[in-house]
Amino acid sequence: MPAVRLVSITEAAYQRWLERLIPEYAAGLARAGHWTKEEALERARQQTAELLPDGRSTPGQYIWTITDDTGGAAGILWVAVEASRPERAFIYDIEVDPSRRGRGLGTGALAALEDWARANAIKTLGLHVFGDNEGARRLYLRQGYVETSVQMEKRL
Predict the structure, then answer these.
(1) How many CA atoms lie within 13 A of 107 on its CB side?
(2) What is the reported pTM?
(3) How far apart are CA 13 and CA 68, in angstroms?
(4) Engineering a disulfide at 78: which of 1, 50, 66, 93 sits with its beta carbon 3.0 to 4.6 angstroms away?
(5) What is the pLDDT of residues 13-27, one digit of tens each?
(6) Is 35 exposed, middle or buried (0-12, 13-18, 19+ CB in 10 A)?
């Protein structure tokens, strides 16, 4: 596994990430059948604005650039510590640059996150993954995450 570090995201990188995050999240919401594409885009904008009212400086929100052993940017990791349960953190986004996937960077980022969590008295990491994201689901299961709820539907 490559050496991975989590480095606080710069404002420029934050803005580039935010431009990708909202439409990608909206696409996932639409694919999952929660809303139409238009509704999903508006919902994604609203949720992001609610979660990050002060951008990357929002208290309790941690957004890092995932760096590899050369110090090069390889992806993004966004985690929030729950105010009502400070021993719990929630992963809102983890992404590795598509050209760099399959090299252990996601695994390394999750390991670095666990180190950070332990150092900050966080005992539980949670996340949501869309059902059609098989690669991410496999990664989380390999890393010891367990499904706590499964929602299913059949489209007719």
Answers:
(1) 14
(2) 0.88
(3) 16
(4) 93
(5) 999 999 999 999 999
(6) middle
